Amino acid sequence: MSLAFQDQAVPLRQTSTGSLWGLAAIHALTEPGVLPLELRWQSVSDPALQTIRWPIQVADGDYPSFNIELPPEKGDLLDPLLVRAENEKVAAIWGQPETEPAWRGRFQRPIAEEFLTSAPFGQRRSYNSGPMNSYHAGQDFSALEGTPVYAPAAGLVVLAEPLVVRGNAVIVDHGAGLYSGYWHLVDLAVTPGQPVQPGDLLGHVGTTGLSTGNHLHWELRLHGIAVAPLQWVSTWFPVPVGAE
User: Fold this and answer.
1) How confident is residue 50, by pLDDT bands cut at 50, 70 and 90?
2) Cα 13 from chain centroid?
3) Which ranges in the chain belong to alpha helices (H)?
4) Which residues have C-beta within 8 Å of that of residue 232, sequence separation ≥ 6?
5) Which residues on neighbouring strands pair with residue 56, listed in sequence order?
6) Which of 164, 168, 181 has the alpha carbon at shortest distance from 217?
7) pTM to 2 decimal places
8) Which among 235, 229, 233 has a CA at the least distance from the CA of 121?
9) For 149-185, how does the pLDDT look when each residue is reduced to its tens digit (9 = 90+)?
10) What is d(CA 62, CA 212) in angstroms, rounded to the nearest whole number?
């Protein structure tokens, strides 16, 4: 059995209690309205594909807007060729076939509670007073250079290297199509292929790449679509059977 939502085909996995679960994402730029979600399955007795469709109400995210003024020495990082090449590199990672889910329960914060949000997920953005045609795909936390950054959940490191726009970057595969990213680090404490557990050190806060000051950019991608990281701290995905 599987779910189909927009361009996502999501396999359903069975829990120990026999219930099924799957996770689908809604893009932050999706217009409010009703979208169809489909449940698809085939039975042994009837190989024809069966489908049930549900309407999903998409609400306005009410995201704020912000203009970022880049210093002259970092203006070249807006070059579309640089941005596109790097986006294709990370998209190829997010587009890999799903692995089995490695996390359990809620995610931890990757940085200590004392460090506050400096830019929220979904914020509409322009650079140097240009068009407001992009959005913030992660959650930024303002912190001093060298502040430790930790893995929020179990997974496998699939990228740990310097990138032009994202700076020193780490990407962790948590399974089930879910990846987390950590940008602008001053250093890297992990290597590709390394398994991590909650609380393992990934690196330290910096301002490398397209950044105007020391901060951690924490990003979560589900099937390649950016989702709100702090939702995973407050909510258990998948929701346990019987929970509200």
Assistant:
1) confident
2) 21
3) 80-94, 229-234
4) 106, 107, 152, 153, 220
5) 35
6) 181
7) 0.88
8) 229
9) 999 999 999 999 999 999 999 999 999 999 999 999 9
10) 25
